[in-house]
Design a protein that fits this description.
single chain; alpha/beta; Rossmann fold; 4-stranded parallel β-sheet; 6 helices; 11% strand; globular
Length: 185
């Protein structure tokens, strides 16, 4: 018998089979797990570029940008500087997507297929946001990671903090996409 929360699990947590792409996108954040996975994919030859996105973050040392934080980590992991594209202005997921697409356009980098490395409980909202802001023809491959909070599709329901974070994503999806739903046809 299906439990009621399983439909939320199926909706929020998404993951695609990995395949080669034009660029690896990393929506901003202060979680090293994101860029570690992106660097691993880069070294495995899944894309020529990594695009970490994000502006200033008060939770990072010296109020640095999420881009600076993530790109420094990528360099430590052996990703060459010329393979790291820069977007350091975004302050939320919609801007991460909008500004990342602008960087790709400006640099003449094709976006036929992209890999989106994001937190697993953020995967549905991130996917929908990038889907709206990138061309309709772009295939977005979602590769979620478990961050330091340890939220997974198997455990989110059993902890108040984890449950609150996942349900907050459900609310944000409703707010974010209410006026954009027609764009997702």
């Amino acid at each position: 018998m299906r439990k009621g929360f399983e439909s939320i699990t199926e909706f929020i947590f998404m993951e695609d089979d990995i395949e080669k792409a034009d660029v690896i996108l990393v929506p901003g954040g202060s979680h090293k797990e994101l860029i570690h996975r992106a660097a691993e994919l880069y070294h495995q030859g899944y894309a020529e570029y990594i695009l970490p996105s994000g502006g200033r973050n008060k939770n990072l040392d010296n109020n640095q940008s999420e881009f600076d934080y993530l790109s420094k980590e990528a360099l430590k992991l052996g990703v060459p500087k010329e393979a790291i594209l820069k977007e350091d202005k975004a302050s939320h997921t919609f801007e991460n997507a909008q500004f990342s697409y602008e960087v790709c356009k400006t640099k003449n980098i094709p976006v036929n297929k992209v890999i989106l490395v994001c937190k697993n409980f953020h995967s549905r909202r991130a996917y929908l946001t990038y889907k709206i802001n990138f061309p309709k023809t772009t295939k977005i491959i979602v590769l979620p990671i478990v961050d330091g909070k340890g939220i997974t599709k198997d455990n989110w329901i059993y902890s108040d903090d984890k449950r609150n974070r996942v349900m907050n994503e459900v609310v944000k999806i409703g707010k974010y996409f209410e006026k954009h739903i027609a764009d997702l046809k």
